[in-house]
Amino acid sequence: MVKATIVGASGYMGGELLRLLVRHPGVEELIPTSRTYAGKPVSSLHRNLYRILDVPFVNPNIEDIDSEIVFFAAPESEWFAKIPNLLDKGVKVITLGGKFRIQDASLDSKIYPGYENQALLDERVYGLPELYRSKIKKARFVTNPGCYATSALLALLPMIKFKDSLDLNRLVVTSVSGTSGAGAKPSEFLHHPEACGTVKPYKVLFHRHLPEMEFILKDTFKKDLKLYFTPAVANMARGIMSFVTVFSEKLDVDLSDNFRNFYGKEPFVRIVYGGDENVPQLRDVVDTNFCDIGVNLDPVSGRILVLCALDNLIKGGSGQAVQNMNLMFDFKEVYGLDLIGGHP
Ligand SMILES: NC(=O)c1ccc[n+]([C@@H]2O[C@H](COP(=O)([O-])OP(=O)(O)OC[C@H]3O[C@@H](n4cnc5c(N)ncnc54)[C@H](OP(=O)(O)O)[C@@H]3O)[C@@H](O)[C@H]2O)c1
């Protein structure tokens, strides 16, 4: 059994971590931190946890953390420099922000400036279980992938078998996300009258998840490649649907079959198929740790369209972090994540 500290527990990601961990069979105690709500019951803010988790938030005193694991569900700040001390004390660390996801010091410091530490960057393991499960099991420090990056990577990784038949210089990813992707802090961009009844593309030529996607793909495919990524927010609270286009020389293979084989017995990646088109639905993954993928190949043009649906707050964040914790502590990988979406 472990004690788990959640730094940033008042945020959306922190709130979801509490929800997933409160009935986790391997977790005996949760320590939720908040600077703003210290002293107030968790359930006074996260109303879904009323009579389930009524303990008070505590101030984040990073030096005093003595739990077996700490989740940092907060933007990078002074706490980042304290990670080495925590690791020295035997505390395992999972960060949910972007710092150190890209294991290239110059690229990382360009996108996420501050808190440089080469030894820590060398040590970090990228927390995508479908790709790095064995490394995560041995890791002390895991950087959880970005929500968009999780979606694009899970859609593209099975293509590795066909990499020599693909145009790797034109990988095109368009993603539509729910508004919770921006966190709990209100903003004019996502103020209800501005975001309701519309789809708002943003950062259309450069979003900071783009280099993360390219870095992990290059590292995996062992090839140079170029990705074009455009995100948008839609009038929904949670979920990401990604449309991933890959151009190929004409492939004469059953891609669905290949994707199913690639993900084998993965507990949280489901390849949907059947009918004329293989199309996942957000509704089936929202509130779960599932990532549903449908792959479609146009035999005439060779265009491959992979559709990928996940919940940004769960498989795109807190659920994946819990999956990583399960691996790091040798718990069953599905502990805390046994969630099924509703229908309709
Ligand atoms: N939202 C998503 O879909 C998503 C997906 C993947 C990854 N992420 C990443 O996960 C992290 C959290 O995201 P979020 O959406 O949950 O953000 P959020 O809703 O804004 O919550 C972040 C929380 O961090 C706390 N915080 C801020 N600065 C802090 C500091 N210096 N020290 C300690 N705590 C601090 C704040 O709580 P107090 O002010 O109460 O202390 C705040 O509630 C971010 O790095 C984000 O990029 C988010």
Count of DSSP H/I helices: 11
Strand content: 15-25%
Oligomer type: single chain
> C-alpha Rg, in Å?
20 Å
Low-confidence stretches: none
Give the distance, in angstroms, between the N- and C-terminal Cα atoms. Answer: 37 Å
Number of domains: 2
Structural class: alpha/beta
CATH superfamily of the largest domain: Dihydrodipicolinate Reductase, domain 2
Strand order of the largest sheet: 8-9-7-10-13-12-11
Approximate shape: globular
Strands, total number: 13
Provide a concise account of the structure shown:
This protein has helices at 12-21, 42-45, 83-88, 105-111, 118-123, 129-138, 147-156, 192-195, 209-221, 255-263, 314-328; strands at residues 2-7, 27-33, 69-72, 92-95, 125-126, 141-143, 171-177, 199-201, 227-234, 240-247, 269-271, 291-297, 303-310.
Structure, explained:
- The protein is α/β, with parallel strands linked by helices and 344 residues long.
- The chain has two domains: 158 residues, 3-Layer(aba) Sandwich (Rossmann fold); 164 residues, Dihydrodipicolinate Reductase, domain 2.
- It is built from eleven helices and 13 strands.
- The chain has a seven-stranded mixed β-sheet. The protein has a six-stranded parallel β-sheet with strand order 2-1-3-4-6-5.
- The chain is globular.
- The model has no long low-confidence stretch (mean pLDDT 97).
